[in-house]
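Aim 2 progress update. The chain analyzed this quarter is reproduced below.
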Amino acid sequence: MRITAVSSWLESVPLRRPYEIASMRITSVDLLFLRIATDQRIAGLGSASPAEEVTGESPSACRAALEDARLEWLVGRDPRELEALSRELESSHRATPAARAAVDIALHDLAARAQGLPLVDMLGRCHDSLPTSVTIGIGPADETLALARELLGHGFRLLKVKIGRSFDEDVERVRLLRQAVGPQVGIRVDANQGFTPEEARGLAVVADELSLELVEQPLPACAVAEMRALPASLRRILAADESLLDERDAGSLVREPAACGIFNIKLMKCGGIRPALAIGRIAQAAGIELMWGCNDESAVSIAAALHAAYSCPATRYLDLDGSFDLSCDPFSGGFEVVDGCLRLLDRPGLGVDSRPGAAAASNQGTAGP
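Predicted structure tokens:
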């Protein structure tokens, strides 16, 4: 089997419901898609959703990194040589992790399709189904409560609330939410680096009082020393997000005393499935639990993250709701939502399909994804 062509394209997708986090308001997302074709009429799909505010990779840099000239080295190669291709990819696309993730995902999709297996079974399945949280942005308390009722009505039982603008207002909003939804609904909070060390210490009391499942990235990404100084009770449920980009960060965070008890792995931060699994091995060895997160993304990369998550023994939490926000994802499938839990479909590779009329349709042929 040989790779015969690599093609990419851009889709600008509005969100169904714009939302706010500590640093910005998000109304739309630029998604990059990639297709790797072979001489055996099997193709692999990948997708990128860069987060410039976290990794420094702009959509234009991501798009440039996926142009034909940057990927022509793949043509003529055997995609079953996955490890060798992945090492070359890490070297050639080190500065653009989301673009690297798109290629990495497509190569993994292709390798699993060639074997006729769901990707998770090629990687080694550990899990079948876990609940995902769904996100509520920063806003007035009445809007938070209304959206919570809507999401719970759709069967979800885990809410992730964005905080980080005003400690007192955030705490009051989460307290009202807990009172409204009762003790059976899980609540996570994500400050997106918005708090000072003093405010973060205050979260230790709030987390216990309101039975928060986890607290995500309360301090700036560079404030790892300050994270280590937080109360142990908080660090046990603290999920590192912006502080965790790659294996080097993972190694730093686990040094005693560990700065957190949870790693939030995102394929767009670390560069794809292969580096994500490397971070997972570091976490497992150190007794750190894994949370798998996302940006606003297509079902293509959400499915890829879910396949990776379900192959890691340390996986405990999912926050893979990014495709729910899109007004028109060009792809569907990969997984299904059952009572708020995500289940992978029993299909080869990622298990995704293009929607009728999607921009990719003219590139796919009869045997591609």
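Confidence is low (pLDDT under 50) at residues 360-369. Residues 3-116 form a domain with the Enolase-like; domain 1 fold (CATH 3.30.390.10). These observations will guide the mutagenesis experiments scheduled for the next reporting period.
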